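Retry 2 of 3 after timeout on previous attempt. Resubmitting structure tokens to design endpoint.
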């Protein structure tokens, strides 16, 4: 008969092994399940689309790739974004947004902020203990992942924090030196933890875009998917003023109608909706009304059209291009862009390597070459050049 000590050690050893397996394989299994790519979209692009796409520098406003424990510098077999796939898709400017907290049972109708399903993921991926309880530390940790990836990339990836750095990147592209420039953004100002000084900390870590809300109401204002769904708070007004001083672009994705109204009434710089859709083609509470689209455009900003079903009410590049056409007809082609939400726990219509299919879909919608350039890159570049610190 085994001794009591042996009987104790066997379960302990088994538990240790199970924990090790969870840490080793758990994150990739979760990411594989949540960030799938839909089947290849239709027929191959024709000669016109291939020739035009070869001249583009695609700019995308939104990916959550930094949330997942996956190398950005090596081509992955799952998920949506890494540098090799961005390069293949000719994505030269990518917004890397960071997620710090999401509620359990997350939905687009109503969520409270009293639960958090990111904490288990943080622990499972063995992030530093300081990130287990502090949202601002989670944001800074994800920023450091992008900076480290840039350092290891051999020049294939850079992090842009100023207009001069963006202009240098654009100049390199004009000479045929194709690389990816990443710009850091925050998805939800709850990452500030109610402390305005944390905005300066995040700016120092390289963040240049601030999404005010995510799936629940916070200290800045209401979420479109929250409970109160209120307008801009006094703290939110202070955050907006400081963001303008620092050259941080304001992102109204997920903002409640009241918050959006209050922010747009105060806007003195372009604002964006980094990822989403429009009710004119996909009527749900996640998407923008015509009036909201007009108000964003009035600031000189852009609406990023997402690559998942809730954004466009479909699973094809034609559905995405239909939403783009709607915005272009409503407010002008200069106010619509790509806002993929790659690696944002969505089934993407295409991954970063498949953007040539977007070019084909825009041509099929009747857009000319110059308009395609604006939609897939130039509009985003313009907004960044107007808002990034000099």
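Retry 2 succeeded. Sequence:
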């Amino acid at each position: 008969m085994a001794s009591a000590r042996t009987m104790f050690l066997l379960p302990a050893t088994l538990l240790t092994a199970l924990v090790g397996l969870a840490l080793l394989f758990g994150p990739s299994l979760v990411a594989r399940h949540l960030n799938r790519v839909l089947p290849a979209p239709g027929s191959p692009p024709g000669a016109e689309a291939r020739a035009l796409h070869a001249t583009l520098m695609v700019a995308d406003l939104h990916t959550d790739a930094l949330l997942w424990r996956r190398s950005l510098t090596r081509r992955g077999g799952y998920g949506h974004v890494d540098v090799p796939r961005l390069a293949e898709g000719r994505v030269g400017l990518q917004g890397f947004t960071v997620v710090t907290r999401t509620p359990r049972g997350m939905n687009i109708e109503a969520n409270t902020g009293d639960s958090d399903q990111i904490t288990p993921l943080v622990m499972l991926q063995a992030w530093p203990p300081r990130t287990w309880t502090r949202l601002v530390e989670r944001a800074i940790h994800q920023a450091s992942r992008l900076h480290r990836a840039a350092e290891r990339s051999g020049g294939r990836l850079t992090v842009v924090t100023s207009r001069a750095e963006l202009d240098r990147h654009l100049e390199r592209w004009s000479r045929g030196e194709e690389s990816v420039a990443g710009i850091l953004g925050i998805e939800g100002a709850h990452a500030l933890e109610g402390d305005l000084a944390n905005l300066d900390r995040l700016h120092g870590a390289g963040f240049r875009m601030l999404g005010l809300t995510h799936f629940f109401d916070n200290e800045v204002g209401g979420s479109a998917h929250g409970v109160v769904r209120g307008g801009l708070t006094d703290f939110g007004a202070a955050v907006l003023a400081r963001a303008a001083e620092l050259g941080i672009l304001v992102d109204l994705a997920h903002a409640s109608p009241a918050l959006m109204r209050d922010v747009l009434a105060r806007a003195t710089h372009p604002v964006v909706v980094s990822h989403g859709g429009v009710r004119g083609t996909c009527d749900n509470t996640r998407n923008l009304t015509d009036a909201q689209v007009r108000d964003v455009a009035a600031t000189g900003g852009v609406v990023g059209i997402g690559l998942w079903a809730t954004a466009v009410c479909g699973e094809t590049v034609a559905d995405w291009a239909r939403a783009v056409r709607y915005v272009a007809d409503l407010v002008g082609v200069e106010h619509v862009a790509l806002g993929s939400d790659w690696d944002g726990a969505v089934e993407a219509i295409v991954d970063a390597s498949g953007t040539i299919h977007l070019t084909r879909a825009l041509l099929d919608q009747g857009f000319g070459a110059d308009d395609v350039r604006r939609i897939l890159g130039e509009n985003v570049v313009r907004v960044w050049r107007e808002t990034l610190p000099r």
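Attempt log closed. Confidence is low (pLDDT under 50) at residues 12-25.
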